[in-house]
Amino acid sequence: VLLRDVQALTLHRGQYTTSRRTAAVPQLQCTGGSAGCSRVPEVVQCYNKGWDGYDVQWQCKADLENVYRFGQIEVSCEGYDYPDDPYILRGSCSLLFRLELTEEGERKVKNSGGFGSSYYQSKKDYFDSGSGAVIVIVLLILAFGVYKFFLSNKQSQQSSGQSDRFSQPFWQSQQAPPPPGFQSIYT
């Protein structure tokens, strides 16, 4: 079939393309977007809106809730004999698309923190699950451990006899005297 002559494509979720030279792929493939891929429509129809001299320009429609819309779309079909063959294998077309939120969808997300979409719900659940608190606690324990290590190391050096100046490293033996009025019991 000549690609330019194809007036409409009907693509179904869960069905695969026909293939001759390459592996079959799903007819509908969501690639993300602000709404995620939790609401992939059952059926999408894409209409040939004209030719730009290089490729067919497609407009795709589906029964979507008012909060969703198609973003970037790309219809891809298998060339019959070679990749850029203007003739395509019947049934070989697939749609790659991004699912975006409409203005109404963005308002609902902002007002309610999500509207049941598993994409937003999973993000919310991740942050509400306390994983951030666990990370903070682990970091505090590590910091306390490092503090105690250096504190015990310093105390062991003080108790090992600082009177012998030759047994200490050069940088410790060259410490400046304490300032006037400083009592050594506060070190």
In the sheet with the most strands, the strands line up as: 1-3-4
| DSSP summary: helix tally | 4
Shape: elongated
- The topology string of helices and strands comes to EEEEEEHHHH
DSSP summary, beta strand count: 6
Question: What amount of the residues lies in strands?
Answer: 15-25%
| Low-confidence segments | 117-128
Report on this model:
This is Store-operated calcium entry-associated regulatory factor. It is found in: Endoplasmic reticulum membrane. The chain crosses the membrane at residues 130-150. With 187 residues, the chain is an alpha+beta fold. The protein has a domain at 3-113. It has four helices and six strands. The chain has helices at 103-112, 118-128, 131-159, 170-173, and strands spanning 8-12, 28-30, 43-51, 56-62, 68-76, 94-101. Strands 1-3-4 form a three-stranded antiparallel β-sheet, with no helix packed on it. The chain has a three-stranded mixed β-sheet with strand order 2-6-5. A hairpin with a 4-residue loop joins strand 3 (43-51) and strand 4 (56-62). The longest helix has 29 residues, at 131-159. The chain is elongated. The model is unreliable at 117-128 (pLDDT under 50).
Please tag this protein with its features.
about 190 residues; transport; membrane; SARAF; three-stranded mixed beta sheet; three-stranded antiparallel beta sheet; signal; calcium transport; alpha+beta
